[in-house]
């Protein structure tokens, strides 16, 4: 995997860092909003992971406003990148690249030998920015799988 330091830097008005427990609900709200989920209770559900053992949450702030989020799960020598999203108005400014770099660095510092992630595949006319960010960071595609979803 490429060194995290080789990834592009954030624009100067953004900063990346870890999320404190008192920021959990804001983190959950940004994550759900980034994916278009606005139903009551969803932000609280994901915010409950902040501070749990083996989880670490990250955010990108524009001034005092959280605009992008992500998480890292540690499992022995393996770290799993998860829960990454950026608010629509903040996209295209390097937030997810910075979150990738921060999580990769922290996984390496924790002694992880592997870092894994999942995202959707690209289809004709449907690019996947997350997949492209991961490939630029040095990830290798290992396999594709079918994901079933239920719609009421």
TrEMBL record:
Keywords: Transferase. The keyword Magnesium does not apply. Residues 14-152 form the N-acetyltransferase domain. The keyword Oxidoreductase does not apply. PROSITE patterns: GNAT. One of its GO terms (molecular function) is acyltransferase activity, transferring groups other than amino-acyl groups. It comes from the Bacteria. This is Acetyltransferase (GNAT) domain-containing protein. The lineage of its organism: Bacteria, Bacillati, Actinomycetota, Actinomycetes, Kitasatosporales.
């Amino acid at each position: 995997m490429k060194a995290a330091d080789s990834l592009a830097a954030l624009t100067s008005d953004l900063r990346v860092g870890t999320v404190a427990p008192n920021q959990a609900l804001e983190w959950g709200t940004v994550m759900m909003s980034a994916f278009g989920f606005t139903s009551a209770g969803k932000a609280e559900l994901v915010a409950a992971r902040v501070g749990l053992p083996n989880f670490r949450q990250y955010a990108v702030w524009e001034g005092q406003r959280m605009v992008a989020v992500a998480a890292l799960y540690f499992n022995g020598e393996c770290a799993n990148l998860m829960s990454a999203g950026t608010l629509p108005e903040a996209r295209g400014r390097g937030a997810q690249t910075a979150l990738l770099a921060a999580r990769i660095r922290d996984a390496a510092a924790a002694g992880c030998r592997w870092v894994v992630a999942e995202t959707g595949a690209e289809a004709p006319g449907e690019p996947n920015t997350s997949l492209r960010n991961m490939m630029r960071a040095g990830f290798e595609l290992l396999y594709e799988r079918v994901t079933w979803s239920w719609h009421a």
